[in-house]
Amino acid sequence: MQKELETYFDRLFPICRSITGNGLRQSFEILQEIIPLQLTEVPTGTKCFDWEIPKEWNIEDAYIITPDGKKICDFKKNNLHVLNYSTPIEQEISFEELDKHLFYIKEMPNAIPYVTSYYKENWGFCISYDEYKTLPKNGTYKVVIKSSLEKGSLTYGDLILKGESDKEVLFSTYLCHPSMANNELSGPLCLAFLYKKIVELKKRKYTCRFVIAPETIGVIAYLAKYGMYMKDKTVAGYVMTCCGDAGNFVYKMSKQETSLADIAAKHILKHQNIPYTIIPFAVGGSDERQYCSPGFNMPVGSLTRSMYQQYKEYHTSLDDKSFISFEAMQKTIETYFDFVRALELNDVYKNTIPYCEPQLGKRGLYPHSVNPTINRKIFHDRMHLLSFTDGKTDLIEIANKKNISIFDLEPHLNPLIEAGILKK
Amino acid sequence: MQKELETYFDRLFPICRSITGNGLRQSFEILQEIIPLQLTEVPTGTKCFDWEIPKEWNIEDAYIITPDGKKICDFKKNNLHVLNYSTPIEQEISFEELDKHLFYIKEMPNAIPYVTSYYKENWGFCISYDEYKTLPKNGTYKVVIKSSLEKGSLTYGDLILKGESDKEVLFSTYLCHPSMANNELSGPLCLAFLYKKIVELKKRKYTCRFVIAPETIGVIAYLAKYGMYMKDKTVAGYVMTCCGDAGNFVYKMSKQETSLADIAAKHILKHQNIPYTIIPFAVGGSDERQYCSPGFNMPVGSLTRSMYQQYKEYHTSLDDKSFISFEAMQKTIETYFDFVRALELNDVYKNTIPYCEPQLGKRGLYPHSVNPTINRKIFHDRMHLLSFTDGKTDLIEIANKKNISIFDLEPHLNPLIEAGILKK
Amino acid sequence: MQKELETYFDRLFPICRSITGNGLRQSFEILQEIIPLQLTEVPTGTKCFDWEIPKEWNIEDAYIITPDGKKICDFKKNNLHVLNYSTPIEQEISFEELDKHLFYIKEMPNAIPYVTSYYKENWGFCISYDEYKTLPKNGTYKVVIKSSLEKGSLTYGDLILKGESDKEVLFSTYLCHPSMANNELSGPLCLAFLYKKIVELKKRKYTCRFVIAPETIGVIAYLAKYGMYMKDKTVAGYVMTCCGDAGNFVYKMSKQETSLADIAAKHILKHQNIPYTIIPFAVGGSDERQYCSPGFNMPVGSLTRSMYQQYKEYHTSLDDKSFISFEAMQKTIETYFDFVRALELNDVYKNTIPYCEPQLGKRGLYPHSVNPTINRKIFHDRMHLLSFTDGKTDLIEIANKKNISIFDLEPHLNPLIEAGILKK
Questions:
Q1: Model confidence over C205-231: pLDDT tens digits?
Q2: What does pTM read for this prediction?
Q3: What is the distance in angstroms between the Cα of A343 and the nearest Cα belonging to chain C?
Q4: In angstroms, rounded to a whole number, what is the distance separating the alpha carbons of residues B114 and B80?
Q5: Cβ contacts of B235 within 8 Å, gap of 6 or more
Q6: Does B366 contact A at CB distance below 8 Å?
Q7: DSSP H or E segment with residue C158
């Protein structure tokens, strides 16, 4: 899987994406090779709750020619150099004038920052502070941005994978940043490869909904269409973002904190035997802000690794391939898949012999003779399951009561159901 | 403020107060210079629940002449020398007889203890153990107590500061101990100066009730008259006592533990960045015993510093001006004032755009371009507020969810209300 | 008490008990000298929920003669040598054949393991690994087991000690293991001697039910008869097992976790000032498995010391007299007795003067003069009691609120009831 992840990463990374435009569409097309997303175009000007779909932005080229004839801030070398959503310009100007349109970070002198201006028309360039310092103060600069900002549409993709029930599990991520790794491509890649694992499950109780949309405005457009239905049907959901580097897992709870999404995530993380943190819902984040807005308040959490705004490379050219790990990305996918497995497995069962223990021995489910040093875990897990299946307590809670994994209970279900002493 | 506090302290300290009498009235008159308390006289013999107003006690002088002619236990030098509520006496007696009427503390040989006998008629003197040890065992002592114990009345003072609502916030303290500092004057001084700050607030939601009464019997008399009304109207209350020394803050919760009084106090203390302790309700205390008695069970807590019975100078002549700090007293007043500010500010709001986030940018409430290193706290506080204003969660709880102060949310309220995206 | 415990232990230890048979009956007869249990015989073949009473097992003798004429695995020397419930056999066989019927523990080479085969007919011997290793591989072995497995009955004993109410407190233990100490005799001995203490109480609110039965099948037979009644009446119950060695106390909660059984046990253990552990209900245990099965879910916990399956001597010949301590056993009995005392004392009272404090001084329940250094605990405990007796909060909860023992409140009850200010 890691090799494949890397191949797709390498194809997607160079593309200049934004919240609209052909870079976005091109990225969706590549992802469709992995997950058959259905794409939707939402026209410029469409009202979505408090928002409106902006003009579509496309860009061909951008650069600056310095007074001494050097080409700098070359979009073709790094698309972060251009202020995302820049209006077109081709003009000769002084350094003083140019300076008002340059973005850099003094504290990170070798990084090109990622800056956008979606909702106020502006043009600009992003540059490392090291390079900025070398710019001559006199003479004439030529600035060129060959972009367009016109009526068009915003693109999002989704896919519904039907299960036995119309109750849904949601996976959502964003596609809208140009060449960045952890805070852009880790989400869509993990979501797409998670889809590949889920689609192979023979039996699925829940319908799975996969959403890839430009952050904020894209998900708002999506929720304007499907939000009320999803509020009704979603039992658990996760926003996949910043999940591709080697940092420890962080699970950000939904506002509900005790939703099935949260219970399953905490349960799986607890039994992985690797460090992790649980944090409450907070607005400094991604699209869980929309899913958990007070009107929706859906059970949507988010499993990340090095989190947005918490690592210094965030939103700069340093969030690149060297920052991430395909091994870590695979572990993220597997962990999310374990969330799905736990949700699918979790259910409420009833012990059909509720008064005193069922006699397991006569059914071949308990040994006839027990040596004092025998490992009793397997029998005790089975008896524990029977002792707590009261028709009210679900399997995750039953596992939590013994501090074992729900997957430790799994092998006991069928034998007990076949023996007639357990039923749904 | 500290200078003023000290001036009033110096005027109040020498007066011999008790639960009734002219020393009490004289003290009330001085306090009325700061807070316009209305005084009430409750006649001797009035029944108040299980209690009855005792006779009024007044005293002019008291002393002992030793066999060798020395005047000791001179009331005019320190009014703690006389057993509070002593009956009058003028008699010559042996040391043996006198000894039955002397109170001292072996373990604190330089302290004059404070002892009372309100409900059983007795006379007596309080003396340091150091002095007690020097008393000649032979010869005749002359004891003089020029006091009176007669039908009269008990005095208490209160003031109602009307707010927009008839829901009330209570501040209660006692006035009844003779010359002691932390465990007597810190309470009335803090209450009076807190009043001065509250009265200057331009707008007040809550009606504030200020009560100064002799401890126990005075508050019982007050509650016999107003208790049922207060039980209905009081949303938060605090007993102000032992709050004038430099010890760390201790907040004693009401019995309810989760009342608004408790929530506000814990919230303010948490964000002061100075050490403090939270303790449960306990009967070893002051008038919260009456306010929180099982029939009333009002939301009344108490913020103290070095607490009654927990510091060795308590109830002795060593609880004097040197024990307290006017700087600390001012901080106590400011902290109580913050409780009031938090209670006044706290309310339930509703985000008028509950589905997905409101677009703050178009309202000038979010920057158009965001550099990666920007300090996002101010925007995140604002978005956090909007994300949790669901018409049910109040501001303190919303602040607690982000571990910030309610005062961090305050500057966002008006801009959001004016923008039409927040309402009560 | 310790001497008596030891005498009974020495008489009971050598007897070969099982889940049925004369060894069991003989043991009951000895216990009846301490507690007048009523014995019941349940015939072979009786259906009890999912189970059926097995044939009755009796044994006279068992041994092996080695090829060199040595008598080993001599039942008369240690009854653990025979597989409990062995079918009769008298036969000459090869080592190879014998080996299939030998039980030993490599990891504990000097221990004879305790092994049973109640529900599948088999014969066998248990032997220390040290001895096993010396057995000649060639030649003929003679195996003799003079046992019988025939229609008969299972014996259990119970005793109902009537109290004022038909609400019950249950004490249950098992009798069925041959010569073992902590995991057999500690339970019946503690239960019997606890009975002796309870029967001496002058007044008992609760009816006490004492049950001694073979583990699992015996209690299942008992519950088949009385379970529904007990489910209705039992307010607290305890399974007494593994409670005779010097290990620290472990309290295993009922599934309810907040039942009166659990609250009382935790309260008493907290105030004993000796180390202890509280653990949740788990199926690796004793007859609480039946009492807490999902259909019954009774408030039944268990106080143990070194717990089943947690000490290496468990279910071997090393769990003998040297493993236990009669001093510890006495402390177990006293602790269980404190559970009973707490349950008996615990009740809901009402302060008849709920508005403000009752005036204790006029009733002689508070001193007229209080020196600053007085120990206020006794008055504060009394006032605390009055402050929380609201007709809803019980005494254990009231004590917990002050982190004192319920027995600290006990001396205040009668004076306050007699003074007319407290009532049930």
A1: 999 999 999 999 999 999 999 999 999
A2: 0.93
A3: 24
A4: 6
A5: B167, B168, B169, B206, B259, B260, B261, B299, B343
A6: no
A7: strand C153-161
